[in-house]
Design brief:
242 residues, mainly alpha, 11 helices, 76% helix
Length: 242
């Protein structure tokens, strides 16, 4: 059952964070049930679950999770307001994960199934590793963007020339490095990485003379490192159980 849950979570991450554009999100929020992208989004989730699980004996489980995804998304669209969008983002994700666990648990022993897996033959350890790495890329970037969206620093950074999306890719790389260092038992390298980033940022922060920008960068850095450390510890503690 653990292997099945990991596959379903992987399908969720890909469907919600990698294969859903901001254009789709905006269209769903504007048109709600009339938005075609709402149903395309759910169909992609169901397709991904079938593709990754690759086991038709779990069809009822997959369809039920797909329906729960639609219901949760619809409730979010009708209940959230502009001031509560950040809160409902996290409630929405929490409900999706709860639905995956609960529905899988309820149907797993009730329905006959076999243990056939797709040709890559990924075991639980490989899937957990893949999940952790995937989560530390775009999903974490979106989570961080949602958290810090309460602060608008566009005025502080409008004259600062920088490469497009450079900050996002730097964040992804640093989280993957932190994950690699911790899983390899090299905690001191994490401290070195944090120190190196602080040194590079020091000049910008000194030049800006903006306390708000300094605090914003500090919060972003701590959240990024904190999530990477948490996922690394989660992986180390769970890898022997999957």
């Amino acid at each position: 059952m653990i292997l099945l849950i990991l596959k379903l979570i992987l399908a969720h991450l890909i469907g919600d964070f990698f294969l859903q554009s901001q254009k789709w999100v905006n269209a769903k929020e504007k048109k709600k049930l009339k938005s075609v992208w709402l149903y395309v989004h759910v169909a992609i989730h169901v397709g991904l679950m079938f593709l990754i699980v690759w086991n038709l004996s779990h069809t009822i489980t997959i369809i039920t999770i797909g329906l729960s995804h639609l219901i949760i998304d619809v409730l979010k669209l009708f209940l959230q307001r502009k001031k509560t969008k950040r809160l409902f983002f996290f409630i929405d994700q929490l409900l999706h994960f709860i639905a995956i666990f609960v529905i899988t648990y309820l149907f797993y022993d009730l329905l006959p199934h076999n243990d056939y897996t797709f040709s890559l033959k990924l075991n639980g350890h490989h899937l957990l590793l893949l999940l952790c790495i995937a989560f530390l890329t775009k999903p974490t970037s979106i989570v961080m963007k949602t958290i810090v969206s309460k602060w608008n620093i566009s005025k502080l950074t409008k004259d600062n020339a920088s490469l497009k999306d450079a900050g996002k890719y730097i964040g992804i790389l640093e989280r993957l490095l932190v994950f690699t260092f911790i899983t390899a038992g090299q905690w001191e390298a994490v401290g070195f990485l944090l120190t190196a980033k602080s040194v590079f940022r020091f000049g910008d922060l000194t030049a800006s003379k903006e306390r708000k920008l300094t605090e914003y960068i500090l919060i972003g850095t701590l959240i990024s490192f904190g999530i990477a450390i948490l996922i690394s510890l989660l992986y180390l503690n769970l890898k022997n159980y999957v």
